[in-house]
Amino acid sequence: MSNTSLTRRGLLKSSAVAGAGLAVPTIFTASSASAFTNEPTGGSVTLGFNVPQSGPYADEGADELRAYELAVEHLNGGGDGGMINTFSSKTLDGTGILGKKVEYVTGDTQTKSDAARASAKSMIEKDGAIMITGGSSSGVAVAVQALCQEAGVIFMAGLTHSNDTTGKDKKANGFRHFFNSYMSGAALAPILQANYGSDRKAYHLTADYNWGYTTEEAVRTSTEAVGWETVAAVKTPLTQTDFSSYIAPVLQTDADVLVLNHYGGNMVNSLTNAVQFGLRDKLVNGKNFEIVVPLYSRLMARGAGANVKGIFGSTNWHWSLQDEGSQAFVRSFGTKYGFPPSQAAHTCYVQALLYADAVNRAGSFNPCAVGEALEGFEFDGMGNGPTLYRAEDHQCFKDVLVVKGKENPTSEFDLLEIVEITPVSQVTYDASIFGGELGACNPGA
Amino acid sequence: MEAIILQILNGLDKGSAYALIALGLTLIFGTLGVVNFAHGALFMIGAFCAVILQRLLSLSHQVVDETRTDFLGNPLKVDVPYVYDWFGEAAGQAIINWSVPLAIVFSIPVMVAAGFAMERGLIKYFYKRPHADQILVTFGLAIVLQEIIKYFFGANPIPTPAPPAFTGSFDFGALIGLENIIYPYWRLVYFLFSMAIITAVFGFLQFTTFGMVVRAGMADRETVGLLGINIDKRFTIMFGLAAAVAGLAGVMYAPINSPNYHMGMDFLVLSFVVVVVGGMGSLPGAVLAGFLLGILESFASLPQVIDIIPGINQIIIYLVAIVILLTRPRGLMGRKGVMEE
């Protein structure tokens, strides 16, 4: 028999706690019957695919969505199974996730943080999505990751390359398969040194936002470590379309390399303008002037046309890889859609499968159990060789591809050629260098 | 010195685009009194005329090349343009390579028709409505047009190169005894082309009877109407002309930056600033302000300038607009009284 007594202080404390609980939006609370947010109760489970369906990255978003639809088809036992057949973990058997049929809802990030958060919130709150995945921008990834952390669902990032996503802005509920700026720099520098030498003067044009800063820093640090000098680093507005007034001053310096820390339309325009101004035909310090694009995307490279020829960059994955996993994915995707998948499609497809497998291994949809299953998970057969989901920052560590614009493409998809597969050991770094704290996992209950 | 000359050159080609778009905007505002936020979309449609013609000329049939394979390991299907079959490979490729200049001819009727359709189909119903309504409806129209383009052409930029004879750059510095002033051929072509268009529009308005009536209508619409002249019909034609000017600016801009569905919006706000700085309704003002702001923007992008005033490259045009609106609300060459009430 317990002895209970009601005191004024106790009543005030209880009221305050109850009041605070009621004040929290419903999205951040689970029903009393559930152990975690959106616990699936029926025969199906809903995943939320949050991709840019409008705005400048809509084509990349469309490719992500294709990949997710393919992943759902494979998880539910349809098609040829794709990478499920090559994945080193064997928990996926075509019966959905934990025996529940996989369904999905989609949201449009518009590549805007507020819109992406709104669509993710809607999918969690109204559609009961148990996991949110996708996106094509680091700003969006960081924003949605924070929302998922608060809401108590897992976030499997899509295409996001900034160090911050699994650096200073990392969260316990967020996981990234895609590589990052640091890895691009670390993979590129030795190749640039081998091809262009150690005595080089680099001029950086950097998109004026978070991803641009981290990419510039990564490439600067790694190229300076091999002897290059950074002559100047100029920030360019994200909305800039004509880069001529930024490229012309390069001609007035003794720089012999131009590094374009640009992505998407910025990259297409700045590269096109640089080539128009004859930079690639120029001889400076007795050497050929060179251009480097740290992050390549095949979809974007198409926009730059022949201007990408011979230009080095890095990429997370490429359809021409010959490993069993990549071939299986290219076959599935190519047969269904008629063209090879992009790196964005690949990372999204892999993330969907990795989540499903983690749930199966954990035996639960509880985000904390899933997170635990993903942390420190080592796998293979997904197109990048042996890969580790590092527990300390939820960043995947795998080989990185250094690519070059192809001189003689055979089709509109055959734009890049793999120059080197940089081993994972060369791009691995200490988890603490970018700061941030994972914090505690939030199941939302 | 070289840096200054190079930035002036950059400013001139950038200013060419601003001037051409602002010229059309001013024509429409001056004649119809409409603030047309869909004008940037006309520039974008012009650029896509170049894309469309390039694709039409590149229409192909497929030939299977048994010696090569595609990404799935099947025999490679190679696209062979029909123009290769009709004119031979060399001549056919030359035709495709010259698709941008050829698109000038293609785009004029397309843009005039688009202008007529826009004016007769929608904008004429807003003549007597407040400017806020006009801005809302034309802005909405611009979004609809860009979404239509995105639906058919995707969101990514589409490379539309200049003819091989005009790709690359030349040493402008060598012409004036200086070094390191490299300038792309096509940008020079763009500047000369825009000067020709601007001259033609001014000549048309200045030296033809039609132009004289339009100018009279811009000055006093009611009086011209009282003389029995159907000024509305002429103004509709001017809308078509303004659309054609924007379209031509877009066609020729395609090799400078690969066209994408959003390019009209990228230029629209800047072009409105150009119109305001030049003076609402002033055609010479629009041209002057276009070049002036283009050059200022280029100078503000110099690293030495950014080092002194960080971020100046992003705000210079708006800063100038604020100063002009505060000190001379009618703009550089605006009529006394306009915007000054």
Describe what this molecule looks like in 3D.
The complex is a heterodimer of chains A (about 450) and B (about 350). Chain A is α/β, with parallel strands linked by helices and about 450 residues long. In chain A, about 35% of the residues lie in helices and about 20% in strands. In chain A, helix 11 (about 345-360) crosses helix 12 (about 365-375). In chain B, helix 1 packs antiparallel against helix 13, helix 2 (about 40-55) packs across helix 5 (about 100-120) and helix 5 (about 100-120) runs antiparallel to helix 11 (about 230-255). Chain B has one domain. Chain B is mainly α and about 350 residues long. Chains A and B meet through strand 7, helix 7, helix 8, helix 9 and helix 10 of A and helix 1, strand 4, helix 12 and helix 13 of B.
List the topology elements:
The complex is a heterodimer of chains A (445) and B (341).
Chain A: H1 8-23, E1 44-51, H2 58-75, E2 101-108, H3 113-125, E3 131-134, H4 138-151, E4 154-157, E5 174-176, H5 181-196, E6 201-207, H6 210-225, E7 229-236, H7 244-251, E8 257-261, H8 265-276, E9 283-284, E10 287-288, E11 290-295, H9 298-304, E12 312-315, H10 324-337, H11 343-362, H12 367-374, E13 377-379, E14 387-389, E15 396-397, E16 400-405, E17 416-422, H13 424-427
Parallel strand pairs in A: 1-2, 1-3, 3-4, 4-5, 6-7, 6-8, 8-11, 11-12
Antiparallel strand pairs in A: 9-10, 12-16, 13-14, 14-15, 16-17
Chain B: H1 2-32, H2 39-57, E1 60-69, E2 75-81, H3 82-87, H4 89-97, H5 99-121, H6 131-153, E3 169-171, H7 172-175, E4 182-184, H8 185-207, H9 209-219, H10 221-226, H11 231-253, H12 263-278, H13 283-300, H14 303-308, H15 312-327
Helix pairs in contact in B: 1-8, 1-11, 1-12, 1-13, 2-5, 2-6, 2-11, 2-12, 5-11, 8-9, 8-11, 9-11, 12-13, 12-15, 13-15
